[in-house]
Amino acid sequence: MTRRAGLVVLGLVLAAGLVGAAYAGTLTDLAPYRYGGRAALDGLPLYGVRDPLSGLPFTYPPFGALVMVPLALVSLPLAGALVTAASVGALARVVAMPVLVVAALAMEPVWQDLRFGQVNLLLMLAVLVDLARPERKASGVLVGLAAGVKLTPLVFVVLLVMVGRRDAALRTAATFAATVALGFVVMPGQSAAYWSHRLLDGTRVGPPELTHNQSVYGVLSRLLGEPPPVALWVLVAGPLALAVLVVAALWWRRGDRLLGTGLAGLAMLVASPVSWSHHWVWAVPLTVAIWRHSRAVALAWAVVFVARPILWPPWGDGREHDWDLAQHLVGNAYLLAAAGLVVWATTRLRAGPIVGVVSDEDIQARIKGLIDQEHDLRQKLGAGEISSEDEHADLARIEVELDQCWDLLRQRRARREFGQDPEGAEVRDAGTVEHYQG
């Protein structure tokens, strides 16, 4: 990011803070956050009661209340300013360009997150930082902390295991366990209440049939006219989430860590019994990732979240139970769009490893990802995690793709040098590019 762009982003963050301060009283979830922090400080009950200001319950684990303590120590306007500014800052970190920050604000999950004073953008950034560089010594800690606040990021442990980052997965699990232990140390009674029965209380976060609940559990609740049996929900949501994780892991291993992590975010939203529309802020990094492969698909994906069709049919007060087929299709648009995206991502895997790149930077990023994979393979061979035959097979595949990447990069540079459109460069077969060294 250039200095000028950085200044623009800083201006957006400061402006967001001012707006958050001015409208702090309308940030619906900020009040129960502050109540949770105050309860942790003063020994008040966290569960079975409601925040006196908003009338809403605190629904997160006890560690979440400890995280909210700073918000309870400052005035409401300052708390609103901090949460809003930090959320817009996180959004800027994800999309990297000021104009994209403004564009992302048009997406319903993003402005809903800001309007509610939620922390989903912050938790998403924590996960993206960890999953972008899981080879760091502290990788996994941020995901564990995010899971300590909202349990659903635990899904990323499965992704880390699938892509062979077991050390990071263990750090995530250990960090999460530490958040649970800290809750029991500081708030033993409240922790016992939460982990024994509050966790499984499906009504603690609102009516599951509400159209804003874009999860498999929400869809089943709307179709059946009542919350589905747990067994049915698990039988439907479990395999679907696992399938999405498999596709996510394949993309991550291929070198597109942003797309892989974003798809894992969709698996998280599918698996959770409650995925409110403001949880779908994962639409933003997915748009960025998809753009590198297909601008048309990225635009179509983004339009779904700008148009917010889930709010077109009648909703609220149980009216979702009376939807006809067309209204179910429109009212479940986020989940259906996610299903379509996963199908596209799966077919794209078959299309070839470097189809769809749109810039030299994309190719260079892919080369770096392949080199990282080579290093991983050698480390696994040295640790006895894979056989030499498996290493040789994977290395052969990686070397072919590296040759193709270097050749494609050379073609683009040559076309640019002679005044031709670099987009005319094409991926050539392995026999043509074999052993090209750049």
Structure, described:
Pfam families: DUF2630, GT87. By secondary structure, this protein is mainly α. The protein has a domain at 360-433. It has 22 helices and no strands. It has helices at residues 3-22, 30-42, 62-67, 69-72, 76-95, 98-104, 108-116, 120-132, 141-149, 155-162, 166-186, 188-198, 216-224, 230-254, 257-271, 283-291, 295-307, 325-331, 333-351, 360-382, 388-417, 430-433. The protein starts with a helix and ends in a 5-residue tail after the last helix. The model has no long low-confidence stretch (mean pLDDT 88).
How would you sum up this structure in a few lines?
The chain has helices at 3-22, 30-42, 62-67, 69-72, 76-95, 98-104, 108-116, 120-132, 141-149, 155-162, 166-186, 188-198, 216-224, 230-254, 257-271, 283-291, 295-307, 325-331, 333-351, 360-382, 388-417, 430-433. By secondary structure, it is mostly helical.
So what's the overall shape?
globular
- Please state roughly what percent of the residues sit in beta strands, choosing from under 5%, 5-15%, 15-25%, 25-35%, 35-45% or over 45%: under 5%
Order of H and E elements: HHHHHHHHHHHHHHHHHHHHHH
Structural class: mainly alpha
The helix tally amounts to 22
Mean pLDDT: 88
Estimated helix fraction: 55-70%
Overall radius of gyration? 23 Å
Q: Care to count the β-strands?
A: 0
Give the terminus-to-terminus CA distance. Answer: 28 Å
Unreliable stretches: none
Largest sheet: none
